[in-house]
Structures are given as structure tokens and as C-alpha cells.
Amino acid sequence: MEKIIQAIKEHSTFYIFGHIDPDGDCIGSQLALARFLEQLGKKSFLYSKGKFERQEIKRFQNLFAGTFEPEDKDGVAIIIDCSTPDRTGFDDEGIERFPTIVIDHHSSGEVFGDFRHVNPQASACTMLILDLIEAMGEKPSKEVAELLMLGLCTDTGFFKHLTETGARAFETAAKLTAYGASTNRIYFDVNGNKKAATLKLISLSLGRAAQYLDGRLIITWETLEDYAEIPRECRDIDTVYPLLLATEGVQVAASVKEDDDGKVTVGLRTRCENIDLGAAAALLGGGGHKKAAGFKVMNSNAEAVVRLLVEHFAKILG
Ligand SMILES: [Mn+2]
Q1: Which of 142, 219, 244, 272 has the most CB atoms around it within 10 Å of its CB?
Q2: Which of 191, 213, 238 is the last residue of a domain?
Q3: CATH classification at residue 33
Q4: What is the CATH number of the domain that holds 275?
Q5: Which domain holds residue 283?
Q6: Model-level pTM?
Q7: pLDDT tens digits for 213-250?
Q8: What HEC string does 255-315 produce?
Q9: Residues 232 and 282 occupy one common structural domain
Q10: How far is the CA of 47 from the centre of ligand 1 (A)?
Q11: How far apart are the CA of 309 and the centre of ligand 1, in A?
Q12: What digits encode the pLDDT tens for the residues 286-306?
């Protein structure tokens, strides 16, 4: 952390990158850091390859550039919430010409960057940004506090994913609240303003969910025909998963979705400590975390992938 602070003090221009398919934690961290650096009189530039699909980050899209064309020769690249350089989507656009700071909370990945602050114990990257701000003897503005809280709320599922190891997340939340963040406001930014058709797609997904393997595996699916009727941006799987996982006897929930050109995407969730979905997905060419993972199948359809899932998890769940 000390070397990162030194690098920040010594430079005046910062290029801030996050990961592809950004979430509230990534965008909240990037933006909060940019605003904080500006507070210190520094110049900062924000980069993201998108897509800005999630409701809570859509409104920030125009603050991010999609190509890296730095005007200064001098400067520092800061990569946030990425465990490998290619997760930025900018890895072949010349980031390596600049000294690189990495701030991340993933437990796996590769060691890269000149100055690293990686803490897998942190529930969100925004916690590490607050650590940095405080280590520099500064305080977040109300705006920065709310951006940091956005990341903390979304990465912890509004604190629902935290366990007995989560005390630090609550300490951070208490500080950010004192600095002016409102979890109530953030909750409605994240979960409000849904299109009416969202309800239709949620009801379709829930109505279709079927249990397999003595009820331990629950699968729902969406097809291209569904998306012909209901736009796919109305997909709200974050609402569907908790209900699937709340079903009696369920250990693993799977969501299957047909994409264009024969690609089928699968999302997996569990609440069981003894199931490693990252490993289960890796066997099918995907990856992820223990409790949330996914994979893709080419040249297939939802029906075939449902069969594949049942066969695969018959072996994994035993
Ligand atoms: Mn994160």
C-alpha cells in the first residue's frame, strides 16, 4: 500500500481500468478512485469495455472510454477488480507502457502489475479503495462514499452473502454511512425502475423451473423464442436465483439461456459449503467462484444443455 501511495503522490495522471462486463463494485471502485484523485488535484481517465447492462451502472456509461488513447506519455495505469490483465479487455492496447497499480480482491488469478494491493478477505474492491483513501490521511466525499457503498452492497448481495467473517464489511459500511452514503437510496438504484416486461420474464423463468436428481438440482431456461416476445434486457436473473435456491431440497440452481448463433450460456449458484461450482464449471470449459460460476456451450440449444446439466451434476452431487 505504501508504494501505491508513493506512486500516486509522484504522478499527476491516472488511467483507471476495470473488468469486462462490469458490476457495481468495479464501476463504483473506478469512479470513486477517479473522483478521489481529482480531489487531490490529479487528472484521471476512466476506461471500460462494458457492457453497461446492469441498471445500477447504466447511468455512468458516458464517463468511460472504450479505447485507450492516452494523450500524456507520463502517467500510471490502475487496474481494479481484475485477477488477470486480459480481464480488462484493454491488455493489447498498450497499458504495459505505464507503471501499473493493481487493486483487487480475487483469490485466484495471476500476479501482474508493478504495485499490488490484493486482499481476498475484502468483500468488495471498494473496501480497498476506502483503505487507500484512509491510508493517505484523507476522507471520502459524500459522492465518493456512496460510490464505495454501491460496490459493497452489490458484491455482498446487500450484506446477505456475508458470514461470521464479514465484520470488516460492516465496519466499512458504518464508516461510509457516516460519510453520507445511503443504503436505502442504493437499494432502489439497483433494484428499482424495472421495465414491466421484466415481471413477465421472471414469471416465465420461475414457472418453468424444474427439479432433478431428487430435487437437488433446479434448472430454469430461456430460449430465443422467449426473447422474440420479451426483450432480453428484461432478464432479471438476480431476482430468480434466490427463489430457486430457497426451494426445499435444492443444492444447485442453474439458469440456461440461449444466445444468438447457437451459443448457450449457463449460470450456476449454490448455498452449500461443500459444493465447488467453479470446479464443476471448469470441467465444462467455464469457471468462476465456489458459489457462483458459469460456462458456455457452442452449437447447442437450451433443451440439450438441460440434459447435459442433469448428467454432469448426477456425477458431481453423487
Ligand atoms: Mn468485486
Answers
A1: 219
A2: 191
A3: 3.90.1640.10
A4: 3.10.310.30
A5: 196-317
A6: 0.83
A7: 999 999 999 999 999 999 998 999 989 999 999 999 99
A8: EEEECHHHCEEEEEEECCCCCCHHHHHHCCCCEECCCEEEEEECCCCHHHHHHHHHHHHHH
A9: yes
A10: 16
A11: 27
A12: 988 889 999 999 999 999 999
